[in-house]
């Protein structure tokens, strides 16, 4: 276990999240003399989400540790979340001694088989001499190709064993950064240069691959507007003149959808074409050529077959595109298409300046945009508040907007925000949560209070399961979605105070700015999580109805736009 800990340290791990237990104590004993900080969480799922947040913001491999039995099964949701969003993570579980595994020993569960569908690799350490090599390979696999999670299961008797290990002779295993085929680079650039209305679609792979500078270089050198997916928010600054919004069914902008529908070519980089982004594929693909770039070959053609597939890491591939285009000395592209996108942006925006009481959700995001600076890291999860965030929230830098995009586990925000703050104590961190999601893992507030991990929580509270209520409308029902527990529901302010943390409830839109300023000041001063609970109108929807034609003078949508534009 001393060798395993030395490997973790050399892989850049300075913080781990977990819960000690009898079957994992040899590993904990080895960590005592290391430089690794351990954060004791209150639930192993919370530990995985904290490691996930740490990994997303650092680009390194996050680590969560637990004992045997339910500790591992509690990690499954976090493993699935990391696999779905391509987040490198290593989860370590204790296990009963090898000789007891077939005898139904206490908390002896086959966690390797349980975890295989939601990991890149799940392995049980069989011999002490394998320890440094298995841990090295775990970190290599987590970082390689399309990143993802690994689970290592450690029988107690193996942990107690010894092995030969010299840290002076050891180092991380190399990770391949695959370059694209030159022929496919040339074919892609030819398509880009021949298109009249091209778009670059930047997915989460651009951020994971640290390719934002190469993206900006390609876009500006060829004068091509850039859209982002939800996972790609921050890959391209949203105040840039070439920013083209976001297309999709829910997390989208009106003008982004219209720009997408008017495009004739889409260069998608590190995007998986999720169903909430594409909607009806016949509408999404009609009339446009697709170039799909991904580091994982099996992603190409998974949702629909692109006109050209390119296998490669986002950073060298985007750089190769720009270099090839410069070598061809193509004449500068006209400004007509970027100007059209800019016109759509100026005419198809959504209001966010409401003064209504109860507070309308867009006003909440307007205040967040205006109060917090571009270096603030926002963490959000799933539900109506995620949809509003995608529609209204502005992002300018990579790894500053963290969202569990595909798995969407409720409760993700608080532990993920802890992971971010542990990685960058100097950075402002804001978790935007719904009332129901907050209640999923609210016990992790105790962890942030214990370790003095300060961040701001903004709760968008409509006191019921708003997104599910919207989904129930076609069924003509309002069933099992209320969260009232008497007058006003749960008192989240008192709940936070029970953890020793400040909290304030806001019911007037004019009080939002002062409440955010108070929360940030209190969090900084007391080094604690601070809650601002915003009571919003219960019937607020996510603006997923058809566009109002009367409100848009210069715009006559195609028939299919009623289904996709807003």
Automatic annotation (TrEMBL):
Keyword annotations from UniProtKB, A to Z: Lyase, Thiamine pyrophosphate
EC nos: 4.1.1.47
Enzyme class at the top of the EC tree: lyase
Ranges where the Thiamine pyrophosphate enzyme TPP-binding domain occurs: 382-534
Residue ranges occupied by any Thiamine pyrophosphate enzyme N-terminal TPP-binding domain in the UniProt entry: 2-113
GO molecular function: tartronate-semialdehyde synthase activity
Thiamine pyrophosphate enzyme central domain segment(s): 185-320
Pfam families: TPP_enzyme_C, TPP_enzyme_M, TPP_enzyme_N
Family matches, as NCBIfam families: glyox_carbo_lig, PRK11269.1
Family, as annotated: Belongs to the TPP enzyme family.
Name of the molecule in the record: Glyoxylate carboligase
Gene name in the database record: gcl
């Amino acid at each position: 276990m001393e060798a395993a800990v030395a490997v973790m340290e050399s892989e850049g791990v300075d913080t781990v999240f977990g819960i000690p237990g009898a079957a994992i104590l040899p590993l904990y004993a080895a960590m005592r003399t290391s430089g690794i900080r351990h954060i004791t969480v209150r639930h192993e799922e919370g530990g995985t989400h904290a490691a996930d947040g740490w990994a997303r913001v650092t680009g390194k491999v996050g680590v969560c540790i637990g004992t045997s039995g339910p500790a591992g099964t509690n990690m499954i949701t976090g493993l699935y979340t990391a696999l779905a969003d391509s987040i490198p993570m290593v989860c370590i579980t204790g296990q009963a001694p090898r000789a007891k595994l077939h005898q139904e020993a206490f908390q002896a569960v086959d966690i390797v088989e349980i975890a295989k569908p939601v990991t890149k690799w799940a392995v049980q350490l069989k011999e002490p001499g394998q320890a440094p090599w298995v841990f090295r390979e775990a970190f290599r696999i987590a970082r390689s190709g399309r990143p993802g999670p690994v689970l290592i299961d450690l029988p107690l008797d193996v942990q107690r064993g010894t092995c030969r290990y010299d840290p002076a002779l050891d180092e991380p295993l190399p990770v391949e950064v695959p370059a694209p085929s030159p022929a496919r680079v040339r074919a892609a650039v030819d398509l880009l240069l021949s298109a009249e209305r091209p778009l670059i679609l930047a997915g989460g792979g651009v951020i994971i691959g640290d390719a934002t500078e190469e993206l900006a270089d390609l876009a500006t050198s060829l004068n091509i507007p850039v859209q982002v997916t939800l996972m790609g928010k921050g890959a391209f600054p949203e105040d840039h003149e070439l920013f083209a919004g976001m297309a999709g069914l829910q997390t989208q902008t009106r003008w982004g959808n219209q720009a997408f529908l008017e495009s004739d070519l889409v260069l998608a980089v590190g995007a998986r074409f999720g169903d909430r982004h594409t909607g009806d594929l016949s509408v999404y693909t009609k009339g446009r050529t697709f170039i799909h770039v991904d580091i994982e070959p099996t992603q190409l053609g998974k949702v629909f077959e692109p006109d050209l597939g390119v296998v490669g890491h986002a950073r060298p591939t985007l750089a190769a595109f720009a270099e090839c285009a410069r070598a061809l000395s193509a004449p500068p592209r006209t400004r007509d298409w970027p100007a059209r996108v800019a016109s759509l942006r100026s005419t198809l925006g959504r209001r966010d300046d409401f003064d209504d009481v109860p507070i309308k959700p867009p006003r909440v995001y307007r205040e967040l945009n205006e109060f917090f600076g571009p270096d603030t890291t926002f963490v959000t999860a799933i539900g109506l508040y995620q949809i509003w965030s995608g529609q209204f929230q502005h992002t300018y830098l990579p790894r500053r907007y963290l969202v569990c995009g595909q798995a969407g586990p409720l409760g993700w925000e608080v532990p993920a925000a802890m992971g971010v703050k542990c990685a960058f104590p100097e950075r402002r961190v804001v978790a935007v949560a719904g009332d129901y999601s907050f209640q999923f893992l609210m016990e992790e507030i105790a962890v942030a209070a214990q370790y003095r991990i300060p961040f701001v929580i903004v709760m968008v509270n409509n006191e019921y399961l708003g997104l599910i209520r919207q989904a129930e409308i076609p069924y003509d029902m309002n069933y099992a979605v209320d969260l009232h527990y008497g007058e006003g529901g749960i008192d989240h302010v008192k709940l936070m105070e029970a953890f020793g943390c400040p909290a304030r409830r806001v019911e007037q839109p004019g009080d939002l700015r002062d409440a955010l300023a108070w929360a940030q000041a209190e969090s900084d001063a007391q080094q604690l999580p601070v809650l601002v609970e915003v009571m919003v109108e219960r019937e607020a929807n996510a603006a997923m109805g058809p566009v109002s034609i009367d409100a848009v003078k210069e715009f006559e949508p195609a028939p299919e736009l009623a289904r996709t534009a807003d």
